[in-house]
Amino acid sequence: MLRNTIISSLILFIFSYNSIAQSRLAHEIGIIAGPISFKSDYGQRDDYSTNVGNTGFGIGLVHFLNFSYNSRRENYFNEHFKVRSEISFNKTGLEHFGITVDGNSNDIGVIQLKAMRGRSTLANLGFQLEYSPFMKIHDFKNTLGGFSPYISAGAQFSYYNSKVSSTLGPLGNTSTTFYKYLTPSDGHQYGFSSQSGTVLSVTYGAGVHYKLAPLHDLLFEARFQYFNSDWIDGLNPNKNIYKENKSNDNQIWFNFGYVYYLDF
Most exposed among 21, 33, 44, 134, judged by the fewest C-beta atoms under 10 Å? Predict the structure, then answer.
């Protein structure tokens, strides 16, 4: 499913360049940054303390291909779409939160979960197609103080590094490790692993551009990123046994940004 989505996104990206031959491209560059809520096998699903506690930070550089800014041809694609490429970096510290770890403080399982620590670091490279349905790009360019909402979809290639540890000592034995992480999983000896690797993901976002000045924008965006692996956080309990851990790792990035138009 993820592979088909990425292929479809790439096809859409290729077709978007049909407008390049018909217009002079303008370029925009910017920087984005903000908090990331990492949804993983740490903590309890849909738990407030988990969502708040497992929050990291990301920063990135963005580049937009603007088909409208220097174009004399006004067609729907040029006036409502931009292609955005991006390189970004994010890091999140992870712990277990929720009802389970709020239980009996003398229970060995509670003690083991509270002692577990994780860290996930990602370097991302990707693109997304950005669609502004309500305002033409030309109109937005000439509207100081204007807002232009948008939605986006795209794909990213990432290099990740995950670290898993415990304050009780080395993981991999019954005295330090919660029982479900001692079960073999997905070709690994255990349901945990400190490792590095590459991963693909799809992204879906929604945001708004604000026209600060003729060549200056601000933006705010919330973006969902779903990975094709469940090892990004270093935990992956056997899904055939522990059904509550059925979803791959994913994250939501709330980012603020500044964009500058290169006027050529």
Answer: 21
> Which range, of 21-25, 107-111, 123-127, 202-206, averages the lowest pLDDT?
21-25
**Has residue 91 got a pLDDT over 70?**
yes
SS3 of 179, please? Answer: helix
Pure H helices in the chain: 2-16, 48-53, 76-80, 108-115, 137-141
Question: How far apart (Å, rounded) are the C-alpha atoms in residues 226 and 2?
Answer: 9
* 17: CATH: 2.40.160.20
User: What DSSP letter does each residue of 10-63 carry, written as one string?
Assistant: HHHHHHHGGGGGGS--EEEEEEEEEEEEEESSSS-TT-HHHHHHSEEEEEEEEE
> Taking the mean position of all CA atoms in its chain, how far away is CA 37?
9
In terms of phi and psi (left: phi > 0; alpha: psi -120 to 50; beta: otherwise), the region of 47 is beta
Residue 92: φ, ψ to 5°: -140, 130
Q: Are strands 147-166 and 195-213 parallel, antiparallel or unpaired?
A: antiparallel
Q: Note down the domain range covering 225.
A: 2-262
Q: Which residues pair with 253 in a beta bridge?
A: 36, 223
Q: HSE, CB side, 13 Å, CA atoms: give it for residue 50.
A: 19
Residue 12: pLDDT over 60: no
**Residue 194 DSSP code:** -
224 touches 255 (CB < 8 A)? no
Total number of domains in the chain: 1
